[in-house]
Amino acid sequence: MSDTPETVLVEHVLDAISDQRLRAGTKLGEQALSDLFSCNRAHVRRALATLAAYQVVDLIPNRGAFVSTPSEDEARDVFQARRAIEATIIRNVVRRADEADIASLRAHLATEDSIRSQNDRPKAIRASRAFHMLLAKIGRNSVLEHYLAELTMRTSLIIGLYGSNAASLCSDDEHARIVQSIADRDEARAQEMVDHHLRHIEGEIAFGEEAPRVGPLSMILSPDRATG
Amino acid sequence: MSDTPETVLVEHVLDAISDQRLRAGTKLGEQALSDLFSCNRAHVRRALATLAAYQVVDLIPNRGAFVSTPSEDEARDVFQARRAIEATIIRNVVRRADEADIASLRAHLATEDSIRSQNDRPKAIRASRAFHMLLAKIGRNSVLEHYLAELTMRTSLIIGLYGSNAASLCSDDEHARIVQSIADRDEARAQEMVDHHLRHIEGEIAFGEEAPRVGPLSMILSPDRATG
DNA sequence: GTAACATAAATTGTTAACAATTTAAACAGA
DNA sequence: TCTGTTTAAATTGTTAACAATTTATGTTAC
To answer: Model confidence at B222, in pLDDT bands (50, 70, 90)?
Structure first.
């Protein structure tokens, strides 16, 4: 892909959101961002417009840009949309995945397993999301893949806002069962597993809780961080 | 909603695309747009970034912005995504629609009927799209509603590119049957009707055909046009 | 000590000028 | 007439300066 300042900025912010380093409500000041990414404010403003279109940033006139804070209703809509989209994705996967795809899924399960033993929460969150995005990729529908990318980021915001500490991580167990039903080419079961998995995640969210605020932008968004 | 120059510009371009006044491949020059909407180029660039994020505009570095030209593969992905999303939407509608909602659907059918007799193709296209968006609204899931808005616009581009002249309009007949099954609270039938309807539209597309080019931007995008 | 107000700082919004690149046009040579 | 080159025009990209608004600070009155 291209490598414009806008793209770099957008990708970094999206990564930070999906890793839950950037939390809902955080202000994204223009000066701060243009300093961090050593570009001018015009670039920043364009990038923020893009992020706003992705619905992970709210643009408030004369006030600036803020990481969006999903309401409870919005959160439920996001999860229902995920179920709708991932149901079709998993159907595509069962029908289209070849042996190499299934191998990559198993490899990913192993990675998740090893990460789980490290107790590195941000890393675990990233790997969990990556599993769902890997499914989307194997499903080979670029439109659904793009929407799922957006929805998983919004899910990260939601879990960061309302999620209980213990919960809010995909259990490797459920991921493994999903992969097994793909390998078995059991479409109905795979769909049911994914649906159950998503409802499980949603069920663990405790609406009403509060979210701790977070450190300065420079700690969260340093551009020299690996893009993973 | 807010009334910034960016918003106005985005809305007008989206309307023009969904009405098929703006066709795939049309160049959206910065000067032309800033003249048309009497704003400066900074506004135009921000608006174009938003439209690019909506995936209805391609931004090519140093070349400018163009209405995006969906490939055949992309078109199939768009239709599959629509089936996935509208399946859930129609389920929501059957479960959540009250009498007023059903009345508004019947009213819309009447409007479509009267428009059909006028032989005004752009008007018919707009009304057809409005039916699907009305369903999305009644379904009361703002995330799915937003995605359907994007997908129906991309559908307009696809039909404008590949659609045969005769076809490519939702038949009122199918819309009427959908409304009837909603009124009957027949979830399975409603879902089947919507799925069939979307496959019908997709089936009438003739990939391989070419699209005629189109007149100047000023004719297509005059900002004083009603937004209705 | 608190509330309301005035002032200063910081941030966002707007505009214009200039540089770099691409596109179109003019032109010369074969 | 066609091809390739050079020149000019138009378009996009970049930057900085300034205006308007919001936020923070400090002061005064009660």
So the answer is: low
